[in-house]
Amino acid sequence: MDLRQSSPSAARNREPILTELQRVLRPDAQVLEIASGTGEHAVFFARAMPGVTWQPSDPDSDARASIDAWRQFEGLPNVLAPLAIDLASADWRTPRERYDALVAINVIHISPWDATLGLMAGAGRLIESGGVLVTYGAYKRDGEHTAPSNESFDQWLKARDPRFGVRDLDAVEAAAREQGLALRDIIEMPANNLALVFVR
């Protein structure tokens, strides 16, 4: 049985995200990906950056099965077995005490706000000095949606779960700052998304 799942959005956004990751990651970086989903991003990025060690994770057991299936299918030695990480759990931990980078793609808007706070707390705890947190997704700016499509997306998310929603960039930056992270880059991405680079 093939447990690999696929996501159309992963195929659409992986190239522009890779470009930014190649810009900000060290060639030998130890990277923790939060909420890796299907695992397609993990294997795509790891194949393109063979010196980077990629640690995927997801709270969902079916997602972890898909990640592991993709990992085995691709046979990439720099993709590790997925971890079960729930950002909303208090003081979540990983086998490593430090990473050069954390990556969170389409996480902040498709989760409760507590998960964003957990992401920032974990980044503050786990990222090496000078390391980065890279997030990707839709954001409001100054309390306003940046495009009608993002407003519709926000409504769809909240109908799915009232705790979800497109977050305001200022609120996300404030949560990061409380954990010792500074917002260094705001990169305009396709489909009205942003990539944010925080440095510790």
TrEMBL record:
Database matches in Gene3D superfamilies: Vaccinia Virus protein VP39
Classification via SUPFAM superfamilies: S-adenosyl-L-methionine-dependent methyltransferases
InterPro entries: DUF938 (IPR010342), SAM-dependent_MTases_sf (IPR029063)
Pfam families with a match to the protein in the record: DUF938
Superkingdom assignment: Bacteria
Protein name: Methyltransferase domain protein
Organism this protein belongs to: Terricaulis silvestris
UniProt lineage: Bacteria, Pseudomonadati, Pseudomonadota, Alphaproteobacteria, Caulobacterales
